[in-house]
Input
Amino acid sequence: MEISSIVKNDFLELNDETKLSEVIGQMRQYEKRSALVFKNKRYLGLVEKKKIIHTNVDPSEVGIADFLQRTPILDESTNVLEAAHIMFEQDVNHLPVSKDKEVIGVVSSLDLANLALQLPRVASLRVDEVKILKSNHVTKDNPLSQAMHIMREDHVDHVPVFDQGELYGILSYRDIIRKAINWSPHRDKAGHFNAELHSKAASVETTPFPMLPVGEFSTNDNLISIAPTDSLKSAVDKMVKKRVKSLLIQDSEKLYGVLSVRNILGKVSSLEKIANYVLNYVGLNDCNLSEHQENVLYAITEREAEKLQRKIDETFRVTVHLKQINKEGKQSQFDIKLKIDLPGKILASEKSDWDLETALHKVFNIVESELQRV
Output
């Protein structure tokens, strides 16, 4: 299953000379959690809002280079398991997607997790089969700087907040940004803080918000949770509905930790990819191939079949019919006929070349082009 169905083209695009203050302003104006950065139409990387919380810089003077995260670019035909692995490893919430070498949109971690639920192996999982985050927690009276330190050191986006041993709320980067850089004024209860943001006293260098108590930033009401024995689908459905990227995992007895969309993607990417194709070689025994040539034949055929699998949901059969001309001479010519048996359709191609590897790539390129037109 490929990611093309979840690619969105409404991404925020910035150039590499943009000041941090402008990034903050545009993210707030367009309600974006990340932005793609380009230089002369060439993708450089992305900036996510959780990376821009720095208390010792003037955003009007600092560019975005120090906050830029260089990431791979996905192809729109990328398999959902491969995309999940890349996003998990990069620890980002968005990745750019290209078509014909041009960035056409982005995919989000939550959309990717939701798409992965269409895979039977994912849909059958329970919450407690995914790694649960058990980072250090904070109390509502701890300074915000302590919570931010934990979030950076533990690589987590959310931290449970306690009061006298009882769960009080949950703190996220989203909570911090709403208050610290006026992310969503209409949802910010600290009106006096918004007013201060327009004065010199509210500059990022002098704002004392890191020393304010965590309880003034955390989400403390209507906490969203899931039971450890609930299905993963129920958890992701809640995330999508509430537009959050984590849930508290708890039941009537205790709090177990936090379920994050990143850890869901980590679980998805760890699932073994089951091949839905069969490989068949004809004429191989009549050829006089070296060990290296046989390895090339098997490696390229397997790799190309995996690429075809991204576009074909049903089981299919790959037949490589190989004929070696002048096999006793110093140089042989290879004639390859390729046939892909799909349900209700057959794709075929034939090419010859003095180089086995070149001939293989030619026949697979032809059927891949035909498949795009199907």
User: Anything to note?
Assistant: The domain at 4-110 is CATH 3.10.580.10 (CBS-domain). The mean pLDDT is 82. The chain has three domains: 4-110, 129-270, 277-373.
